[in-house]
Design goal:
96% helix
Length: 135
């Protein structure tokens, strides 16, 4: 009697093992997709911030140029120098925003690739599961 219970537990365990392994692989695929989605969302957010930084730098550059021209027009050397400095700082800020935006786009692309890899792995697991059922 005790041996039959042990055998039945062994059979049930042997049948349940492939199901557990399949669900673990499935969960790992979803994890890859989730990580890809998170990376892509972070890239989008950083790209948005970079565009704001770029716009702020362009505005500062325009304001500095206007100050420089006003200082030149009114022979005010201090205003002209301050305008040149602001224009230079605005230009640097704009370039920094562009670089930040490029890095964010790369992050977004990497997230997209990771997400696609997760989807492909999930499809492969589903196909393998279907092939196993056929045999």
């Amino acid at each position: 009697m005790a041996q039959s219970k042990i055998r039945s537990l062994f059979v049930v365990g042997a049948l349940a093992l492939p199901l557990c392994l399949t669900s673990a692989v499935s969960r790992a695929d979803n994890t890859a997709q989730n990580a890809g989605n998170a990376m892509e969302k972070k890239g989008n957010a950083e790209e948005k911030a970079a565009n704001a930084e770029k716009a702020k730098g362009a505005a500062m550059e325009r304001k500095g140029k206007a100050m420089e021209e006003a200082g030149d027009k009114h022979d005010n050397k201090a205003e002209e120098a301050a305008g040149k400095k602001m224009k230079k700082k605005g230009h640097a800020m704009e370039k920094s925003g562009e670089a930040h935006g490029d890095a964010a786009k790369e992050m977004e692309k990497a997230g997209d690739k990771a997400e696609k890899a997760g989807v492909d792995a999930e499809k492969d697991a589903a196909k393998a599961k279907g092939d196993a059922k056929k045999k």
